[in-house]
Amino acid sequence: xxxxxxxxxxxxxxxxxxxxxxxxxxxxxxxxxxxxxxxxxxxxxxxxxxxxxxxxxxxxxxxxxxxxxxxxxxxxxxxxxxxxxxxxxxxxxxxxxxxxxxxxxxxxxxxxxxxxxxxxxxxxxxxxxxxxxxxxxxxxxxxxxxxxxxxxxxxxxxxxxxxxxxxxxxxxxxxxxxxxxxxxxxxxxxxxxxxxxxxxxxxxxxxxxxxxxxxxxxxxxxxxxxxxxxxxxxxxxxxxxxxxxxxxxxxxxxxxxxxxxxxxxxxxxxxxxxxxxxxxxxxxxxxxxxxxxxxxxxxxxxxxxxxxxxxxxxxxxxxxxxxxxxxxxxxxxxxxxxxxxxxxxxxxxxxxxxxxxxxxxxxxxxxxxxxxxxxxxxxxxxxxxxxxxxxxxxxxxxxxxxxxxxxxxxxxxxxxxxxxxxxxxxxxxxxxxxxxxxxxxxxxxxxxxxxxxxxxxxxxxxxxxxxxxxxxxxxxxxxxxxxxxxxxxxxxxxxxxxxxxxxxxxxxxxxxxxxxxxxxxxxxxxxxxxxxxxxxxxxxxxxxxxxxxxxxxxxxxxxxxxxxxxxxxxxxxxxxxxxxxxxxxxxxxxxxxxxxxxxxxxxxxxxxxxxxxxxxxxxxxxxxxxxxxxxxxxxxxxxxxxxxxxxxxxxxxxxxxxxxxxxx
Length: 664
Fold this sequence. Notes:
Blueprint: H1 6-14, H2 18-34, H3 64-78, E1 81-84, E2 87-90, H4 122-125, H5 128-135, H6 138-150, H7 153-169, H8 181-197, H9 204-207, H10 212-227, H11 237-252, H12 259-276, H13 289-309, H14 315-331, H15 360-372, H16 385-395, E3 411-412, E4 417-421, E5 430-435, E6 455-459, E7 462-465, H17 477-484, E8 492-494, E9 502-504, E10 507-508, E11 514-520, E12 527-534, E13 545-553, E14 558-566, E15 571-578, E16 584-588, E17 591-597, E18 602-608, E19 614-619, E20 621-622, E21 625-626, E22 628-632, E23 635-638, E24 640-648, E25 653-662
């Protein structure tokens, strides 16, 4: 069933080291041996039938609106409606439903050996993100949370029915849902927290401890995660999730003789990866803003598990959570929105509150505040069920002393992020993210985009110059390539090529070398400046090097962007500026008149573009691909892209000016 794409496999192998190849060969041998286990129940010997400690909280103190939101979302599930990626789909009911992609209607393999299935082929799996999301069973923890708060058994009964349906439809290593470790891990976390939240339900023991089906599935999930891990160039957030899933599963269900050994191995791995995958400045090494939030949540769930068991993680582990939370708080704009750098796919670890993209950035801060405390300069967190629960757990232990920044950081040297913004909070804040960081994490930089020296510019939380987002992963390959491309970002494309060579939907074949040239005034004064360069185009004739500087005049409410190309001869370039979907634009020559509104008033802006280039405005264009914005995974809407094209030599500087003023 697996169709071999020879060119991709060769390119992928070239990004691996000898140790990774050896590990993958070992895994292939294990998968061959495991074939005989497909669909077979485990020969389980129970070491104990006791589950991990129950939730040490009864829900008191939770804001009424938070509880009401949980109940409303659970009622939609009772009605058979499931919300994923902002779309309402039918709740899986039959065995086949677990294998049907609600986006395309394609039914993925349900009987084949999991490792024979080409899970990356949309013809086989459909839109795999839409297929996999319900199978993480995170909606079941939401039902369990509703029962926890209300004691209404209808929520508990539906949660148990969903679990039994999935367990029956997915025997060990049978079908698509056993083909990926991160999926196994997130499901096991859902099992654990569902059991805890249903602790007072009379049917909980029958559903879990007394069920041979449940015991078999829980053992097999732990067995899988203990034996198969992401390696080398793939050891990114997937590895963290696999370790976390094993740790939570072996802690919550310590039923089996190896559970203690598995738990200890997972703890050791989590301690190591928390340091490896996070820069010293607190930002995630994946160079993808939403994955920073995902990693932060994983570390917090791990810390909560340690507190619940009375075996807290190290001070360094909690310190990483604090650094990530401080970095996250520093990046949010006045509207509480995070940057849009790199891939985004709405990933969550456990769903105790309804999924809400608008609330999520400050919900993560609330959770971190409960665990490690906050800083005075943080934006106001948004408390919810999860954050209240974590605060209860943290209150049972003495918090380690953690050094914290006394004021909001504007510069992240390791991650290569500079934030040029107003110094004091104001409703019409100018906020600009400039990127001079590494291309991504590990040799394939799976979730990175070719966006060196790109920027995002917002006014009052409204996207003016926007990062277009992600939209898709494995479906619609042309769109995947566009949304990751250099031309798809607010930066300079040289010679018609990306800064890095594209090798596949999650594979870059090289990385641009980027370096900071100067940064000043980010934290004081009327003028903030940043400049950097990268050599991603140096493989071309003329060996061009792109340099960019950005200057924010806080008093004049003005931004200057200056692009220079160090090169021999004249080289074709395209300079792109992508407007946010709320911005209307009228292009006249090299002047774009902009208009937008926020919650309080209408605004106008002027974008003066380099006159030496020929400019055109594209909106929702398919040929060429341009003029698209993805507000969330699986969704794209038209927006205006301004593309300037021409020849450029080393003597030229392309200057762009943005000014803002209230509408008359």
